[in-house]
Amino acid sequence: MIDILVPKILDFVDVAVVAVIIYLFLRFIKGTRAFQILIGLLLIFAVSLLATTFNLVALSRIVDSLLAIWVIAFVILFQPEIRNVLARMGRYRILRFLVRSAEHVAVAEILKAVEEMQKRKIGALIVFERDINLGEYVATGTKLDARISAALLTSIFTPHSPLHDGASIIRADKIVAAACILPVSEEPWVEDYYGMRHRAGLGICSITDAMSVVISEESGKVSVGIDSKLYTNLPGNELKAYVEKFFTKEER
Fold first, then answer.
1. Could you tell me the CA-to-CA distances from 165 to 25, 51, 211 in Å, in that order?
2. Can you tell me the distance from the alpha carbon of 123 to that of 159, in angstroms, rounded to the nearest whole number?
3. Are residues 147 and 202 in the same domain?
4. 72 and 136 inside one domain
5. pLDDT (tens digit per residue) in 51-88
6. Contact present, 203 and 211 (Cβ < 8 Å)
7. Of 139, 113, 136, 133, nearest in space to 125 by CA
8. Residue 252: CB atoms within 10 Å
9. Does residue 2 belong to any structural domain of this protein?
10. Are residues 29 and 71 in the same domain?
């Protein structure tokens, strides 16, 4: 007779895998509205346990009716986060044969937009979200949730466009928002030599792991902000390398 109380190696592996999944999920939604929603759902579950323990019939029926739609509510409430996770999973090499990746199209469209804005000396600030969620900055702008395209990026930053001021934030293969307000760097050397776009591009990559691309409207030169550093006057091949690394999630 098998003793179910004796743990096996696979039991420890099972628990470890579940723990890692829960940890990664909590880390992913930390600082977002989804984290607050999750706390509310856990509170409902705790009330259900208390009602069952103390045999509170009326309360148990109410809570049980809420738990019956818990899974559906979870999917609806966490739809943006689930979609973001799936999009990120699609960029891992081990899963690319299962998910059709749009990274090559996105890279080409971004580089095409940058080249066009350089020629026309259109100032621009594009921010690429990495592991740290930029939801609080997305909320300051106009939400778009649109596929990346050169035409759209160029039109956003065209002077006198309603959205040309501020930053456009890219998450996975989508432009999630435009005209977003970012924190600006207070480094003295930046204030002496660069304007607000460059200061904001350096500011966002100093307090998060985001990458920023800045186009100067005076010279048309391109800068990249990453890891609290600002790399200026980059040629096209170096910019392409930075953008490709973002989509392939490779370490610099």
1. 34, 53, 18
2. 8
3. yes
4. no
5. 888 888 887 777 777 766 666 666 666 666 566 655 55
6. no
7. 113
8. 8
9. no
10. yes
Q: Is residue 111 part of a domain?
A: yes
pLDDT value at 198 more than 90 = yes
Structural domain boundaries, residue 190: 103-248
For residue 85, being part of any structural domain is answered with no
- Burial of residue 58, with CB atoms counted within 10 A of its CB: 0-12 exposed, 13-18 middle, 19 or more buried: exposed
Distance CA 104, CA 208 (A): 25
CB 146 within 8 A of CB 152: yes
Q: What is the pLDDT of residue 213?
A: 97
Name the domain count of the chain.
Answer: 2
State the pTM of this model: 0.61
Q: Which residues pair with 124 in a beta bridge?
A: 215
Q: Looking at residue 177, what DSSP letter applies?
A: E
Model pLDDT, residue 3:
55
114 neighbors 168 (Cβ within 8 angstroms): no
